[in-house]
Write a structure and sequence with these properties.
The complex is a heterodimer of chains A (317) and B (307).
Chain A lengths: L1 H30 L5 H6 L5 H11 L5 H13 L13 H36 L4 H15 L2 H13 L16 H7 L1 H27 L2 H8 L4 H38 L5 H10 L3 H28 L2 H5 L2
Chain B lengths: L2 H29 L2 H8 L3 H18 L1 H4 L30 H37 L1 H15 L3 H12 L3 H28 L2 H8 L4 H12 L1 H24 L11 H8 L11 H26 L4
Helix pairs in contact in B: 1-2, 1-3, 3-5, 3-13, 5-6, 5-8, 5-10, 5-11, 6-8, 7-8, 8-11, 11-12, 11-13, 12-13
The chains are: A mainly alpha (317), B mainly alpha (307).
Chain lengths: 317, 307
């Protein structure tokens, strides 16, 4: 048990270190930009005096390591700086949009995770049957489609005929049921893309385990196929499956950007793409850091669970 | 076209695709020698259809100037002309021929995606296996560094990098190849990790074999199946990433014809019930589906998951 606790503490510490290095990477990559924020704000016709004044105002005249510490310290206290394009504190822009994005991701996960695991287990149970082949082929097709293709197809068939809204326009005051209705098409788009991947990985993980000798033993002593899957194979396949789920949830974060653009959904992805378009550097920095933190967290979780359930990995130095 | 008519047409399309795959398989079997024919007979119809489609795309990419009726940059008519001769698929938002741009898109988008994947693979595989083999401090250092790079999702990282390095084709290739080699690293390392604990690696180490020998002669051959499959999948991911970036207006730059940006340019048509923007998006989807079908078959063969 102590071993386990030690492993978790170690992993979390490494995760925090990863985040710090990551913030350094994001900070330095913006440093590499030609010119700086002061010139960016004032444009090309600015006088050197005006640029110097703004630099002093923003603290850009300080050496980089002090600015980095200030920037990171501000982030930790919830001060993400000010948007250049909108002249508003970034935290006010990010907070409601992050909430929307999390809502959409959670909505998708609630549909996709149980569906994917169920389909994966059924496909491995009835492998090489027509069910397996058809589900495998459709999963492959769904993985292969760009999110915007799936999104526009759904708009074409389900929104133009008036079943669902094509624009997911939600505000914090929208009641939950209406929110679920408005976000149905974006969530469905993400579900189609993510479920396929998760289902295939689940199937592969279980089939790999079914090839092991102890499963053959179970077969030979006459255990029912469903019992073999649920009692013998599933506990051992859990680590790879959890890994797949966490990785795919992390993948959702990328998918969300495209889907938010297609459905004009007021989320963090849209904020970031707008930031890139207007070269609003502080917004791009802050949103990539938020996306990255979510990604690191999910990967960390996957890592801890898969290590904790595999004694061979626990003992590896 | 309503949802109902799609329900009817979808099985028809699927069956005719499989029929085309079957015809292609039979034609190939007649053409090649006995051993290859035996190998081909094991291919499922989906894989045959995949191969046929990939060959089609390659033909379009190579012979684009001869197939396309117009140049990719040529402005010929008003914006958004309907589907009628001489512009079979209409014109786009600037009045360029959609069909010609579609054909040229095969060359631009697919070529660059392939180049990026190959680059990412060479770097990722070698570093991944080496790291698994060495373990200890080197593994930790590599692993954490890759973790830092991987801690930003592909699209987010490429958005950040492309804002900084600009959106030229060279920086697109280098940025995406670097980002994707981290994914290859992780897979190669994970696959190799299961192999390095096996007895025959221990035996080879005790024999005093060099690291290069261990990587190329012991580990790589035994991890070929998952890595080959990963190459196909990785190509699809790269292809989709490039298309997504183009869709956001940050990938291949105009006036180069590219499927992702074609979707973005014509996206407003969809709300009028015009399916023109779905065609380039479909072209992306069909190629990735085809590659995936072939990869799936190869993986199935190589892994010995026969039943």
């Amino acid at each position: 048990m102590n071993n386990l606790l030690f492993m978790i503490v170690k992993r979390v510490a490494l995760g925090v270190l990863t985040l710090i290095l990551l913030s350094l990477l994001i900070f330095l990559s913006v440093e590499a930009l030609p010119g700086d924020l002061a010139q960016e704000i004032l444009g090309q016709q600015a006088t050197p005096e005006a640029v110097a004044a703004i630099r002093k105002d923003l603290g850009l005249d300080l050496p980089p390591h002090i600015r980095y510490v200030n920037w990171l310290g501000g982030m930790l206290q919830g001060d993400f700086g000010t948007s250049l394009a909108l002249k508003r504190p970034i935290i006010d822009l990010i907070a409601p949009r992050l909430q929307n994005t999390l809502f959409l991701t959670l909505y998708t996960a609630c549909i996709a995770v149980p569906l994917a695991i169920l389909l994966g287990m059924m496909a491995s149970l009835f492998r090489n049957s027509y069910f397996d082949r058809i589900s495998n082929a459709s999963a492959l097709s769904a993985i292969s489609m760009p999110e915007f293709f799936v999104g526009y197809i759904l708009i074409y068939f389900l929104a133009l005929s008036g079943y669902f809204p094509s624009m997911a326009n939600i505000t914090p005051s929208t009641p939950l049921f209406e929110k679920l209705y408005a976000c149905f098409l974006p969530a469905l788009t993400l579900t189609l893309v993510v479920t396929a991947h998760m289902m295939r990985m689940t199937r592969a993980a279980i089939i790999n385990i079914l090839a092991l000798p102890y499963i053959e033993m179970a077969h030979l002593k006459g255990v029912r196929p469903s019992r073999i899957i649920f009692r013998h194979a599933l506990p051992n396949a859990l680590a790879p499956i959890v890994n797949v789920v966490a990785l795919n949830l992390a993948y959702l974060i990328t998918g969300v950007v495209i889907v938010e653009i297609v459905f004009v959904f007021p989320g963090l992805g849209q904020l970031m793409v707008d930031g890139v378009r207007f070269r609003d550097v502080p917004v791009v920095q802050a949103s990539s850091l938020v996306f990255a933190s979510a990604y690191v967290g999910l990967n960390l979780l996957a890592d801890i669970i898969s290590t904790a359930t595999n004694p061979r990995l626990m003992r590896r130095k | 076209m309503s949802l109902f008519s799609v329900m009817i047409w979808l099985p028809v399309v699927v069956v005719s695709c499989l029929a085309a795959g079957w015809l292609f398989q039979q034609a190939l079997i007649l053409l090649v020698n006995e051993t290859t024919a035996k190998f081909l007979r094991t291919a499922p119809l989906t894989a045959c259809f995949g191969m046929l489609t990939i060959i089609f795309y390659i033909i379009f990419a190579v012979f684009a100037p001869f197939i396309a009726p117009y140049e990719q940059y040529e402005i010929l008519a008003g914006a958004f002309e309907p589907w009628a001769y001489p512009y079979v698929l209409g014109t786009d938002n600037l009045g360029r021929d959609v069909l010609s741009r579609l054909v040229y898109g095969a060359r631009n988008t697919v070529g660059i995606a392939f180049l990026i994947t190959a680059l990412a693979f060479i770097v990722g595989t070698v570093l991944g296996i080496y790291s698994a083999l060495r373990g200890g401090l080197i593994d930790q250092l590599f692993g954490r560094f890759i973790d830092v790079l991987m801690a930003i999702p592909t699209l987010i990282f490429s958005l950040l990098m492309l804002t900084i390095f600009g959106t030229s084709v060279l920086s697109l290739v280098l940025v995406i190849a670097t980002i994707d080699s981290t994914r290859v690293f992780r897979i190669a390392r994970a696959v190799a990790l299961n192999i390095v604990v096996l007895d025959y690696i221990e035996a080879a180490k005790l024999r005093g074999e060099s690291t290069a020998y261990l990587i190329t002669r012991e580990i790589l051959p035994n991890s070929m199946a998952p890595l080959a499959a990963e190459f196909g999948l990785r190509f699809c991911f790269v292809f989709l990433t490039i298309s997504s970036l183009s869709f956001l207006g940050l990938g291949l730059q105009p006036p180069l014809a590219d499927w992702g940006s074609m979707v973005r340019d014509n996206a407003e048509l969809i709300s009028f019930g015009d399916i023109t923007p779905l065609i380039p998006a479909g072209a992306i989807a069909v190629l990735t589906i085809a590659v995936n079908f072939v990869v799936d078959w190869l993986l199935h063969r190589a892994s010995g998951l026969k039943d």
